[in-house]
Design goal:
This protein is an alpha+beta fold. It contains 37 helices and 38 strands. The strands form six sheets. A twelve-stranded mixed sheet has the order 16-36-35-34-17-29-33-32-30-31-37-38, with helices on both faces. It has a nine-stranded antiparallel sheet with strand order 19-18-28-27-26-25-24-23-22, with helices on both faces. Strands 7-6-8-15-10-13 form a six-stranded antiparallel sheet, with no helix packed on it. A hairpin with an 8-residue loop joins strand 30 (689-696) and strand 31. The two termini are 49 Å apart. Mean pLDDT is 75; it is low at 96-102, 260-267, 496-501, 518-535, 714-727, 946-958, 1021-1047 and 1091-1104. Residues 1074-1095 are annotated as: Disordered. Its EC number is 7.6.2.16.
């Protein structure tokens, strides 16, 4: 019944959850209430911490339709509960076109669907405060404070209360600050006034929060920040989608084509798909820069999604509710504390004291064993690291993640604005004449070149447009056009109307570049007079065939004013362009020249030209297929572009490579550009191969498949069989579309691909997040560095997200760098490693401190004595807190090393270090404890036998004698020196932190405390003057065993062949012996469903 009634919420989405129904049970509620009262509220706390237990303890399982409470389980095994509401829906469903014909229909839709605003719940500080206070650590501190107050130990209790209040106040301030930043981001432009069509010719002004799917809105000519997702049905828009893609290049959106015209033989009932009709969809949060319309018609769009269902809403949800990041250190810390509690519980097994005394003192021992100052001590290193990061311009809103940065072994980088400067630079051109290359030329705006086909192609073959008088478009097109020195002139609305809605854009050189005569013998004077442009060399762009990443080219059909015939210009990947040209026009040394440029890291674009037939008219061009245009071309030459990296990029990536930290590029940019940049910056070494995985979804009954091919095949090997040597390093590159297909249809290959995946291009925001999750699923510690709002989800999901922007991305990112380059990444990793090692050192020190104090108290309890209040206070405040806060001051080591710090507390060398220190401390305490009692002058105190039953009346009158005695003094001094010795031994330096002797506050504090202890030691206990030798012996023993013993154990562990723990290491071992991996280029991998209908796994078949 349970399986059948299990419901799936948001199936197939990132936030998919299992929902099960429960009904409240009265008798269970009564039992839980009684249990809570009997346990003093502890049961209520336990159920608060465990929502799953709470629901099952107070409810009984039922069908969802009858349930009062729902238990939700996320894909990351987190539980939450919520109450259920029921809505009665009796309205008859009608087609969308019949809705909103009247105001009443629209109003009722708004009422039914409530507000469509991107609205964040009001932040209630009281609830946030309660959630902080009810944290298990703070509850334990409260318990400890109450226990100490009953034992009249007020001073340390006050100190702990003050530290806890400061910690909670700091957390509240940070949460409030993050909420305000995120609220401002959500609220920005989310509520605007829009024009809504309510009938044939009727419009009205409405708030965007009142929009519902199906509304038809008018896009204003002066632009707007889209408040919803809508599909264009009339007109054209130029949109800045940087909020989603991170690329500042404006995108042209056209109206949705008529299904009856678009699908031959179709019935006109085509289904709208966001992915398929992306070029016609205006996404929420994107900026409409400019609109274009014809013959007086308004630019209209139909609302398809509102609120948190929009593209921006999904981005906000990913920031508000990221999947939790698990870190082994914190799990191990809790386990370690439980072990310490178990140790403390053993201490009183043998005790002969009354039950009440046993309980009180056992609880006291537990508060000693699990020190309440541990959270403050553990965060000391993080606080200091945060302060050092702030000095180098790195700010953090999630300081706890600094420790995780120390474990990073893979960093994902956005490209534009992160690794590179924005845009490309022109390096030069190399023209072809009579089938031969000219020498390379630096400038294309020379007077001698202005009327050549090469420069005309550069000036006309692009998708640029003017926005508010400024040229805008693809950076490559922009640089190429600017290099010609030409001018772009767009047609007016009146000119467009004269040409049956054919929108013309003209390009022309400035008059000073034109030779005296540019007329052609075929010039048509009638046309020349019509346009009144006979005095200039003007080219009109009649048709554009947009750039296709699959075809790796774009082309245009143009007509020079006054010419009868039209021309076609083509640009694209050199190999592709050359294959479309006449063989005799392509130079024989084409492959060698191209290889020479690509090896130098240049981005090379090839140009071609074709004179079209005179019978081809304006109207025929609008319907002709591009394949009929892009053939039998004349090769014109090469444009050499330089994609400038930021100066710091190669050096930083080299530092990361030497430190064995993998680097991956995740960008919204073009695939070939991304691969070129990856080679230039050293992410892909010159000798390494790049295999492109081009995945295609199922189509026309055919299974999904992946085509494998090299990104750049050197010319010398074009005629040789393509076989990748095992020893050769290879990288996979894929687009966002391919990544989506692989996730859906090739789950078996996904982890193998990301193991060597280096370039991920054209990635949508949600795909970047999915990639980070996939990398984390194979046990990588992932960092993400980006600068755009499209990186927000990945920045939030990664173990460490680093934003180079102080805008939207900084809201989601745990770290923000004010330095606009990636030097912040190694700085953050170095500080993370230093903070992580500091946490280990502090945790080991605090564990030893608690064990040492526990041993001291246990030894003293055995004779009926105990440490005094001021002795506790001196140890806890003057020694422990001073040492903890000074030993954490070691700054990070100056460079990244290949060695990584341990990720957890449960490791052989670390446990060996702690256990040996415990044994040594126990041995010396027992030795001192027994030695003092063997001395001739020692006499037993009067209270020694007070725990024998007939002496119980004397127990209450011996408080002072119980504390002020020789054994107490001896144990106090021995343990005090042990705290300082252990601190010195555990304060590690290289290779992650600066040496301890450079930490002068720590050295000075330790020396002052040791001197002070020696000073006070000689006055109350003059008989143990020779204790100094024991202290030196202790230091030598502790340090020697910790250093050499740990190193020996590490060496022995390394000698044994260990099975790697991380999944990516397992996978790498498996693939290294797999003869069929990597897939051979020029082959295809097909996915076919398994024979069993209920089995959704796939069989992989390789087809050459």
């Amino acid at each position: 019944m349970e399986k059948e009634d299990l419901k799936i919420v948001n199936r197939g989405l990132e936030d998919e959850m299992e929902l099960s129904g429960y009904r409240l049970c009265r008798w269970k509620l009564v039992l839980v209430g009684l249990g809570g009262l009997c346990t003093g509220g502890f049961l209520f706390l336990l159920l608060y911490w465990m929502p799953e237990w709470c629901v099952k303890a107070t409810c009984t399982r039922s069908a969802v339709r009858d349930a009062d409470v729902a238990l939700l389980q996320s894909t990351c095994l987190l539980f939450s509960s919520c109450s259920l509401r029921r809505y009665e829906c009796n309205v008859k469903l009608t087609p969308v076109r019949e809705h909103h014909d009247t105001h009443s229909t629209a109003d009722s839709a708004v009422v039914n669907m409530s507000s469509q605003e991107l609205e964040m719940k009001e932040l209630k500080l009281v609830l946030i405060f309660l959630s902080q206070v009810l944290n298990p650590f703070y509850i334990f501190q409260l318990f400890s404070v109450i226990l100490w107050c009953t034992d009249e130990y007020y001073y340390y209790a006050m100190a702990i209360v003050i530290m806890s209040v400061i910690s909670i106040a700091t957390s509240l301030y940070t949460i409030k600050k993050q909420y305000v930043m995120l609220h401002d981001m959500v609220a920005a432009h989310s509520t605007v006034r829009v024009t809504v069509c309510r009938g044939e010719n009727e419009t009205e002004e409405a708030l965007s929060t009142d929009l519902v799917p199906g509304d038809v809105i008018v896009i204003p000519s002066n632009g707007i920040i889209m408040p919803c997702d809508a599909v264009l049905i009339c007109g054209t828009c130029i949109v800045n989608e940087s909020m989603l893609t991170g690329e500042s290049v404006p995108v042209t959106k056209t109206d949705l084509p008529n299904p009856q015209q678009d699908i031959k033989g179709g019935d006109g009932d085509a289904i709208y798909s966001t992915e398929e009709h992306k070029r016609h969809t205006l996404f929420c949060g994107t900026n409409i820069i400019q609109t274009r319309y014809y013959t007086g018609e308004m630019v209209k769009a139909v609302v398809v999604r509102t609120g948190f269902s929009t593209a921006k809403g999904q981005l906000i949800r990913s920031i508000l509710y990221p999947k939790p990041t698990d870190f082994k250190l914190y799990r191990d810390a809790y386990l370690f504390l439980l072990c310490l509690v178990a140790v403390a519980s053993i201490v009183f097994v043998y005790s002969l004291e009354p039950v009440k005394e046993i309980i009180v003192k056992s609880l006291d021992i537990i508060t000693i064993t699990v020190p309440p100052a541990l959270p403050a001590a553990m965060t000391a290193g993080i606080v200091y690291a945060q302060r050092r990061l702030r000095k180098v311009g790195i700010f953090s809103i999630s300081p706890q993640r600094i420790n995780i940065c120390g474990q990073l072994n893979l960093v994902c980088f956005d490209k534009t604005g992160t690794l590179t400067e924005d845009g490309l630079d022109m390096w030069g051109i190399q023209r072809v004449e009579d089938g031969r290359f000219h020498h390379s030329e630096e400038k294309a705006d020379d007077k001698s070149l202005v009327t050549t086909k090469f420069v005309s192609c550069m000036a006309a073959c692009h998708s640029l447009t003017k926005i508010e008088g400024q040229l805008s478009g693809d950076p490559l097109d922009l640089k190429m056009f600017e290099a010609t020195g030409w001018i772009l002139v767009e047609a007016t609305e009146e000119e467009t109307a004269h040409h049956d809605r054919i929108e013309l854009t003209y390009v022309k050189p400035p008059n000073q570049l034109l030779p005296p005569s540019v007329t052609s013998p075929e010039q048509d004077m009638e046309l020349s007079e019509l346009y009144e442009l006979s005095a200039s060399y003007m080219i009109g762009i009649v048709r554009q065939f947009s750039f296709s990443s699959a075809l790796q080219r774009m082309s245009v059909v143009v007509r020079q004013i006054g010419e009868r015939r039209m021309d076609a210009y083509l640009k694209g990947a050199p190999e592709v362009v050359a294959s479309l040209c006449k063989k005799e026009t392509v130079p024989e040394d084409f492959a060698e020249v191209l290889e020479d440029y690509t090896k130098q890291g240049f981005r090379v674009i090839a140009l071609a030209h074709r004179r079209l037939e005179s019978k081809l008219t304006f109207h025929k061009v609008q319907s002709i297929n591009r394949d009929q245009i892009e053939k039998n071309m004349d090769f014109l030459g090469l444009i050499i572009m330089q994609n400038k990296l930021k100066t710091e990029t190669p050096g930083v990536l080299e530092d990361l490579r030497r430190a064995n930290i993998r680097t991956v590029m995740v960008t919204g940019d073009n695939m070939l550009t991304a691969i070129s940049v990856a080679r230039d910056c050293g992410m892909i070494q010159p000798q390494d191969r790049v295999i492109i995985a081009d995945a295609l979804p199922p189509k026309d009954g055919q299974a999904a498949k992946i085509d494998w091919h090299y990104a750049d095949q050197p010319s010398k090997q074009l005629n040789k069989p393509t076989k990748l040597e095992v020893s050769e390093q290879y990288h996979f590159a894929m687009s966002g579309k391919s990544f989506a297909v692989i996730i859906e249809h090739f789950q078996d290959l996904l982890q193998k691909l990301v193991l060597h995946g280096t370039v991920f291009a054209r990635m949508a925001p949600d795909q970047k997040t999915q990639l980070v999750e996939t990398l984390e699923s194979v046990d990588y510690f992932v960092g993400m560095c980006g600068d755009g709002a499209n990186d927000c989800g990945a920045l939030k999901r990664a173990h460490a997200g680093i934003s180079l922007s102080e805008l939207e991305a900084s809201v989601a990112s745990p770290f923000t760098s004010t330095t606009p380059n990636i030097t912040c990444v190694p700085n953050l990793i170095r500080e993370g490693r230093a903070a992580l090692i500091t946490s280990f050192c502090v945790f080991k020190f605090m564990a030893l401190y608690s064990i040492i104090q526990c041993l001291s108290v246990a030894l003293l309890y055995s004779i009926g004595s105990n440490l005094g209040d001021f002795q506790f206070l001196f140890i806890d405040i003057a020694i422990i807190l001073v040492i903890v806060f000074t030993m954490s001051l070691n700054s990070a080591w100056k460079e990244l090393v290949a060695q990584r710090p341990p990720s957890g507390l449960v490791s052989g060398p670390l446990l060996f270090s702690v256990l040996t220190q415990i044994i040594i401390c126990l041995g010396f305490q027992i030795m001192a404890f027994l030695l003092i009692q063997k001395l001739d002058w020692y006499s037993k105190p009067d209270f020694y036998n007070c725990f024998v039953p007939h002496h119980m009346d004397d127990f209450t009158n011996s408080t002072k004698e119980r504390i002020k005695n020789d054994v107490n003094t001896t144990v106090f001094f021995v343990s005090s020196f042990q705290y300082l010795i252990v601190a010195i031994v555990f304060s590690k330096g290289k290779p992650f932190r600066q040496p301890s002797y450079k930490n002068w506050p720590f050295v000075l504090s330790a020396l002052i405390l040791i001197g002070f202890l020696f000073f006070i030691m000689f006055f109350p206990v003059a008989e143990i003057d020779d204790f100094l030798e024991v202290c030196l012996f202790l230091i030598i023993t502790h340090g020697g065993i910790d250093q050499f013993g740990t190193k020996c154990l590490t060496w022995l562990c390394c000698r044994q062949k260990k099975v790697p723990k991380a999944r990516y290491m397992h996978l790498a071992q498996e693939l290294s012996v797999d003869p069929d991996w990597p897939p051979k280029p020029k082959s295809t991998t097909e996915a076919k469903p398994a024979p069993h209908p209920d089995d959704y796994s796939y069989q992989i078949e390789a087809i050459s």
